[in-house]
Specification:
255 residues; alpha+beta; Diaminopimelate epimerase; 16% helix; binds 2,6-diaminopimelic acid; lysine biosynthesis; Diaminopimelate Epimerase, Chain A, domain 1; amino-acid biosynthesis; 46% strand; DAP_epimerase_AS
C-alpha cells in the first residue's frame, strides 16, 4: 500500500488516497500503522475518499486505531494532500464527520473553515466546548513546565468525561493577541505537538473576553492563527490557519 506522511505544526498523520475504497478499515491495522516503533508512526491516519458534490471526503482515525471526530490539523494536511494530488487548484470543499468544510492553500499554508460554535460551557474556572471534537480548556501559569500528560490524563479520565473522553488543552496568555497551547489528546492518550480543534477551542475561550477577531497561537510544533466572529456567546466564520507539509512517501505491506 502506498502512503504519504504529513505534519501540521508537529501533529502528524499517515495519509492514504482511498478513492478506490481498497483500504482495510481495521482498528488493529490502523493502530499498527500509527505505532512509532512497529509501524510508520503518527498521531492519526486519514483516508481521502470521494463524496460528490464535495471535492473529497475525510475519514479520520486516532493512533489507537479508532475512528474519531474532526481533526483540525489533519484537515489542513488533507487539503495539502488533495492539492498535491491535483484534486483542486486553490479553494476546495470537503465533507468530514462534523459536516462540510471550505479551505484554501497558498504556499504550503492552509486556511481551514471550522464549524460554528454555539456555546462555551463552564466547568469550575475551566471551559468545555466542541469545535468538531470535544475540548476541555484550562488556563495555567508557566506552561512550559506544566505536567500536561499527568494533568490531562486525570481530566480526560475523570468521572464527567471518562465515558466518551475529551481532549484537554492547557493555555497560557503570552500577550494581548497571543496564547500558548499544549494539548493532551483523546485517542492518542498523550500530549501531541499541536491539536487543531484544540487550538481553535482555546482561541475561542480567549476571544470571548474581548473584541479581537483573530489571535496567534503558539504550540510545541509551531505557530497557528485562529480567526472568528462573535455573535453574542456564539462564534461563526471560524478559520484555522497554519502550515501543512508532506514529510515523506512510501509503500508498506498491510499483512
Ligand atoms: N484526538 C481528537 C481528534 C484529533 C484532534 C486533533 N489532532 C486536531 O488537530 O484537531 C479526538 O479524538 O477528539
Amino acid at each position: 500500500m502506498e502512503f504519504y506522511k504529513y505534519q501540521g505544526t508537529g501533529n502528524d498523520f499517515v495519509m492514504v488516497d482511498n478513492r478506490d475504497l481498497q483500504f482495510p478499515k481495521d482498528q488493529e491495522i490502523i493502530e499498527k500503522l500509527c505505532d512509532r516503533r512497529f509501524g510508520i508512526g503518527a498521531d492519526g491516519l486519514i483516508l481521502l475518499e470521494n463524496d460528490e458534490p464535495y471535492d473529497f471526503k475525510m475519514v479520520y482515525y486516532n493512533s489507537d486505531g479508532g475512528e474519531s471526530t474532526m481533526c483540525g490539523n489533519g484537515g489542513r494536511c488533507l487539503v495539502a494532500f488533495a492539492f498535491f494530488l491535483d484534486i483542486f487548484e486553490e479553494n476546495c470543499t470537503f465533507i468530514a464527520t462534523d459536516g462540510e468544510h471550505e479551505a484554501e492553500i497558498h504556499n504550503g499554508v492552509v486556511k481551514l473553515k471550522m464549524i460554528d460554535v454555539e456555546s462555551i460551557l463552564s466547568d469550575a474556572e475551566d471551559f468545555v466546548l466542541n469545535t468538531g471534537s470535544p475540548h476541555y480548556v484550562k488556563y495555567v501559569e508557566d506552561i512550559t513546565n506544566y505536567n500536561v500528560f499527568a494533568e490531562g490524563n486525570k481530566i480526560r479520565n475523570s468521572e464527567n468525561y471518562s465515558e466518551n473522553g475529551i481532549n484537554v488543552n492547557f493555555v497560557e496568555k503570552i500577550s494581548d493577541d497571543e496564547i500558548f497551547v499544549r494539548t493532551y489528546e483523546r485517542g492518542v492518550e498523550d500530549e501531541t505537538y499541536s491539536c487543531g480543534t484544540g487550538v481553535t477551542a482555546s482561541a475561542l475561550t480567549f476571544l470571548q473576553k474581548g473584541n479581537l477577531t483573530s489571535i496567534k497561537v503558539k504550540t510545541l510544533g509551531g505557530n497557528l492563527k485562529v480567526y472568528a466572529e462573535k455573535n453574542e456567546n456564539k462564534f461563526h466564520k471560524i478559520w484555522l490557519e497554519g502550515p501543512a507539509k508532506q514529510v515523506f512517501r512510501g509503500k508498506i505491506d498491510l499483512i
